[in-house]
Amino acid sequence: FDLIHKSLHQHQQVLTVPNNSFAQAASSGSITRPPSSGEFATDSLFRTIAFSCALLIILLVAFILFEVGQKAMPAIGEHGFGFWTGTTWDVNKGIFGVLPEIWGTLYSSLLALLLGGLFGVSIAIFLTQDFIHHRLAMVFRTTVELLAAIPSVVYGLWGIYVLIPLIRPVAEWLHQEYSWIPLFGTDLSGPGLAPAALVLAIMILPTVAAISVDAFRRIPYKVKEAAYGMGTTKWEAILKVMLPTASSGILAALVLGFGRALGETMALAMLIGNSNQISLSLFAPANTLASLLASSFPEAGPIEVQALMYAALVLLLITFIVNVLGLGIQQYTMRKFEGKK
Q1: How many other C-beta atoms lie within 10 A of the C-beta of residue 139?
Q2: Which position among 16, 71, 74, 266 has the lowest Cβ density within 10 Å, counted as fewest Cβ atoms?
Q3: What is this structure's pTM?
């Protein structure tokens, strides 16, 4: 009985020591304490500012849509859906159609996304999968991101004076040898779709590369170690494990790059040729909605301004549809490859 009593007494002492220590620590305020009134006020102020900024963005978008839509209403009522399917833009006759511009916008943006997305994701793999030292990778990444700081008019001038003379011999050879292919059905006489798409691909490259690099770096290193532990080679681990795991972030990068390509104005206005036609040829001049707005607004009269506002609404709608589709594809890939709901 004495042994049992002594062991119980020791056990109570062991239990009371942490309680006393916790009580002392809590009383001294070194571990935890309730938030002060100043912290509550700071938190409430931050929440209010964040909510106000989010609401302000929504109101700003709604205001832009209202203003553009209000000025486009006369053209919408007069031209209707025929504005989407028309191929003639004649101010003197009052005939307006943007089908060639829609075609040029989507065609040039898709070509740029194909090139910029391919090189952007390849650069992200090269910089994050231990192909070079991390310090050298940082230099490469900074260099790629600096491309985003170059003004679009500089890209346009570079395309006119450097890129077009550089690719013209190749374009002429392709047209002479493979003119039966619709992609090479015309020659490159000057500005055209190919130089515009190449410059546009360079312009969206920093966006795609930077976001793709972040997507790869968010993957825990143990995922790669588990792939190597299963006996995969380096390229098998990259293509079959790392790339699907980072697919949601890569798709977000592609959607943002595509949105940037859809809205690019100055460089395309200088390089695409501003020709109101629909052609599959990479070397034919074309036009886009953004370049139509930029080139026509300075000298537009009241009737043409209404049509241009209608064209701006068309561009906004296309951008909105592209972002919604991209978000849906991103959510699907997150459920499929990352197990998120």
Answers
A1: 12
A2: 16
A3: 0.80
